[in-house]
Each structure stands twice: as structure tokens, then as C-alpha cells.
Amino acid sequence: MRTAFTETFGVRHPIVQGGMQWVATADLVAAVANAGALGFLSALTQPTPDALAAEIARCREFTDQPFGVNLTMLPSIDPPPYEEYRQVVIDSGVTIVETAGSNPAPHLPALHAAGIRVIHKCTSVRHAVKAQSLGVDAVSIDGFECAGHPGEDDVAGLVLIPAAVDALTIPILASGGFADGRGLVSALALGAAGINMGTRFMCTAEAPIHSAIKEAIVAADETETDLIFRPLRNTARVARNSISRRVVEILDDGGTFDDVRDLVAGVRGRTVYETGDPEAGIWWAGTSQGLIHDIPTVSELVSTIVADADAIIRDRLTSLLDIPAPA
Fold first, then answer.
1. Which domains does the chain have, with CATH numbers?
2. What is the pTM of this model?
């Protein structure tokens, strides 16, 4: 299955594993790479640039296939040393970077000078157009269904993806709500060159999170997420639990971020993944959890998605065409 994405980025399958904080470590990313898809290490999961260099080296011990690094840049009073993380990526010889959050412009000259191809994650067509004008090599566009930050426009992928395709000339990855071969085929039909999945890759054997959290995702349906931070115009989709409901209530009643700061602390979310207690903090999940019913290996997951997509295209869709039988 060749697309503009597979051709540009040198992978076998048009499937990407997102750079999820606390989850996208070498164990998962190498398994994704070995399965023929593209995985991204999460740079800021590593506490220092030196730790990122060690994690990149660890990933190379497990795979000789292409993988990338996600660099998420968010507003902060005390921002991480993004330039130092970027230099580690350059010095390591990694050839693919996913940028997200803030404008990638300050990082593009150095990355491109090092021969690194850049995918920028966006949540709107206007942001994707801006990213293309800056010179990124592809965009990953998040529909409203996604885990994490879907933006403030509330546009679902069925509209957002083809709208982006109409406006751009670079490859587009469809993100948000994808979990199986049906999703891959639909994304390709809408004009995307591949899909980006986060929640689905959390429910794999190699994902470095507690099995109880994987089972919680399997047990949940598509309605069991919450949108927090909406009054703050920083909407985030998370798994529904007692803490997410409390955050929504506080902010809907006029509370400020300071009123929920302790509830949403990142260290509590990491504790969820480590201990398996789904009520320990805020943690990410997209509506695609309603399509997740098992916990396969990464290899099994990617193979199944590709095989199912192939069968849908060759059998189900072809059967709808009125093609005369051979004489």
C-alpha cells in the first residue's frame, strides 16, 4: 500500500504511532518500526536532553527501521530547553521529527539543514496551511475525536480531513478516531496519505503502561471521555473518571486553572500508567476507544489493520462497482 506518506518517509505502511507523553518510549516505538509503521519517541518524556539521547540509542538496539522523535512545544513559565532536545535529535542521526503545540518555525532551519523531514501536528486547516507555508514536509491533522488537544473548532475528521486535503499539497496524516482497517480505508478515501493513532497503540502488548489501564480502555465505549479546560480555551480530551468530572465541574462553575492545577498535574497522570489506578489522575484517551476490543502485539495490530484495509478495498468496495464480467 504505497502513498505519498510511505514514499516520502520510507516506511512500509501508512500508519503512524503518535508521540504520546509517558507512553512513547523505545519499547513501543521499536515494535512499531519493526512492524513497518512509523513510531515517534516522545522527547519530553525524557527528563533531560541526555536522557533523550540514551533513549534514542536504546531504540536503535531494538530496530534498524526508521523511527522519529516528537517535540511538543507548549506555553510554559519555565519551558524545557527545546533547542537542546532538538540538537540531540540532530546529533543522533534521527531523520524524522514530529513537531506539535507552538509554531515550528524556529526549529525548521536547523532540522532541514540536518536533512530531517518534519511532520507538524495541527488541529485546523488554517494552521495546516500556515505550517505548509513554513516548509514542513507533511502535516498530521487532528479531528475532534482525538485524545489530547483537539483545538477549539470542534470539527470532526470526516470534514476536517478532506478540507485540509483541498487546501494543501503536502502529504496529510489523518488523526483522531482511527483504530482499524476501516479507518485506514476511510482516511485514504478522504485524501489522506495515512493515519496517526495514539489510543489504539496504548492497547498493545508493548505499550509501557499498566495492564489495568489497557483493560480499562478495552472496557470503555466511545462516550466515556471528557473534554476538560473548555472554558480556558485549551480543550483536552481525556478518559472519563472522577477527577475529570471534578475538573469539568470546577471550571464550568467559574473556577480558574489554579483551582484545578493539583488535579491535572502531569505526575498524577504518569502514576495512572505506572500503578494501573484509573482514578489516580488525568490520562489521555480518544473516542476511538469504543473501537478497541483487544490487546494485541504491535505486529499483530499493524498486520491486521493492513490486511483488513486491503480486503475492504479489494472485496467490499470493488463489489459495489458495476463491472461487467469478462467475456
1. 4-197+296-320 (3.20.20.70), 211-275 (no CATH)
2. 0.95
